[in-house]
Amino acid sequence: MVPTEPPFGQDGPCWWRARDAIDEVKAGETSNSVARSRRVVCRTGTVPDQILNSYLAARDHIVSGLDDIDRRLARLWFAGFNQTAMAKDVGLSQSSVSRRFQSHGLFALLDNQPNNIEIG
């Protein structure tokens, strides 16, 4: 049986904010004037939302610059590998892995992100 009404009302301030956010993301996908890392996620105008948007923009900027090896290292980090095991898995020395973590922003990205979020 197909329901005749949606599961929730399509009206009210939360619904309209969600619609605005979806429209803004879609516009950013097709526009060269809005950089991917500058997308707005929260639209309530509160300080916590501004902080969250800043964090997400910085995170997106770091992730967009990761190469395949960096993404593999991030996945291995989430799986609980240490740098020696990561190095062996990707065919680098442990010191090369450490340098990548330092110079490519992986420490900043991974130390401040929940473990249940997938990178690329």
List key phrases describing it:
mainly alpha
Mean pLDDT, rounded to whole units?
A: 77
Outline type: elongated
As a percent range, the share of strand residues is: under 5%
Gyration radius over CA? 19 Å
Biggest sheet descriptor: none
Low-confidence stretches: none
What's the β-strand tally? Answer: 0
* Helix-strand sequence: HHHHHH
Structural class of the helix and strand makeup? mainly alpha
Count of individual helical segments: 6
Helix content: 55-70%
Q: What is the terminal-to-terminal distance?
A: 38 Å
Task: Note down, in words, how this protein is organized.
The chain has six helices and no strands. Helix 3 crosses helix 4 and helix 4 crosses helix 5. The protein starts with 12 loop residues before the first helix and ends in a 10-residue tail after the last helix. The protein is mostly helical.
What's a quick, concise take on this entry?
With about 120 residues, the protein is mainly α. About 60% of the residues lie in helices and about 0% in strands.
Annotate the secondary structure layout.
Elements: H1 13-30, H2 47-64, H3 68-78, H4 83-90, H5 94-103, H6 106-110
Helix pairs in contact: 3-4, 4-5
